[in-house]
Amino acid sequence: MSIRVLLVDDVVHVRRLVHNALRFHGGFDVVAEAHDGAQAVQHAADHQPDVVVLDLGLPDLAGHEVLSGIRAASPRTKVVVFSGADDTGIRERVEGYVPKDADIELLIDLLESVGQQPGRRAELALRQHPSSVGQARRFVAEKLTEWGQHALLDDAQLVTSELAANAIMHAESDCVIRVSLTESTLRIDVVDSGAGTPEPQPRSFTEEHGRGLVLVDAITAAWGLDMVPGDGKVVWAELSRSA
What is the rounded distance in angstroms from the CA atom of residue 42 to the CA atom of residue 219? Predict the structure, then answer.
């Protein structure tokens, strides 16, 4: 079967170059093209491509916002950055990165490799109920056991508890929890539509909220929050597989 590709770049001739190279190589089906971030997210939702080729220098949204939107719209889609811009934070969150001054064949080879790899992503929709926090923990434990990542279980469940509780109890929202595994990291995303943002609180013997995020900050390689245009927010955390 052909690898289904979404091309995202605001420069028409770059999209045409990649499109023609994929067609000439064979084995690819370009399902859509997008010239900005909002259109990229919409096309990802509509077409559910296998791979997105993403430029970071889009006119409307920052690279991390586009990436979060694509992840929320099409969780199983893989992302390869093809850009003149460099962002080490983005590099750690995608399946591949090729600079625009590289040979186009390097991009084609990477897309072929990434598109044929079995995905290690899973997600679960959770309703706004206290019991959903435990359900999220069990879901993450099941997936990590299935993927043979037993060393990450304890830390991943702690992070899951905090992020899910923030969405369900404090943002007062249904949510989606998503886990994805790359060669270097385990990433946990929680997507919700509630108001407010999670903030770590100073150590206190009386304050009940915010202390969990201090633990999250201590045990993760990175964590943060991305706004998804028109669709709430994503609170994410990454655990290093080498830790």
Answer: 34
